[in-house]
Amino acid sequence: MLRPLLIGATAVTALFAAGFSAAVATRGEPSAFDSVNRDRPLVALGSERQCERYAGLPAHWRDDPKAGMVRLRGGEFVMGSRSGYADERPAGDGRTRVGGFWIDQTDVTNAQFAVFVRATGYVSEAHRQGGAVVFHVPTPEEMNARDLAWWTWVKGASWDHPSGPGSNIEGRGNLPVTMITQNDALAYARWLGRDLPTEAEWEYAGKAGHDGADLDAAPRDASGKPTANYWQGAFPVLDSHEDGHAGLAPVGCYAANDFRLYDMIGNAWEWTKDPYTGPHQSHSNGDTAAVAPPARRHDTPMVIKGGSFLCSRDYCVRYRASSREQQEADLPASHIGFRTVLRDGA
Predict the structure, then answer these.
(1) Which domains occur in the chain, in start order?
(2) Of 84, 180, 174, which Cα lies nearest the Cα of 129?
(3) Which one in 31, 122, 278, 326 has a CA-CA gap of 20 to 30 Å to 89?
(4) Start and end of every Sulfatase-modifying factor enzyme-like domain (predicted)?
């Protein structure tokens, strides 16, 4: 079952190879990172020790309406990639302008979402639908029996029961909240007077002032160590967790980008507010809707950004700021989370 997937992935790897040899963007202090941030108590993360000790709630959260956020000045950037998949190609010269906005430093955590639920009584769509799509490492028998054997619709799975009935998030307040639909994410954001980012806002923040071939490379440091949580090994049967994590990691275990944002690449995909348009090429990313109950109605495909712990060199190849994927707005899954924004003037 793996052979066709891996053969197709060889072509994908070759697709990016040409881009890797180009000169990388010049490093420096990014002009969009507003100086107001230097006077704010930013979340102190970026290492294994720090992320393990983090409780999942930024300092002054709920007292300061912008707690856990940084402000980015508006500006122009090149949206998309000429080295990636067909639906990532820039429109025209790709120059795109966004206004100024605040954005969460990390994905919204289980701890933050739990406070929201306690305060409002909100019932997530996974609870209302009676389940969610969950990843597991498939057996050889499962791989031979069906496509997308790593995805299963699990009855009773939800943000607070991530593996189904009997599981819980005790001791996992610092992990990204997942099994969240776009409506769930919007409900949380609006509770705080915020919104979800547009695709352009998300990519502007993810690229952090850079525009070079390194944006299309697998995220590794100068010594070759992974700098994000993505899959190393043969997907979906062997994750060598060279990056230190198999499955979801706590937020902020890796260094922030130059806008002081953590986990923009890997760990969990992130919802945007934009509908998905573009080529629907067969890149074997694994449509989670294929394992949802047959009677479930299909909702609008929305753009998700950033890749997840499931992206690897032989599957997905979306651990990049320009990457984009579609997800039905009301379909909860174990590899999708979100962060919020607050636009200037809102």
Answers:
(1) 2-343 (3.90.1580.10)
(2) 180
(3) 31
(4) 67-341
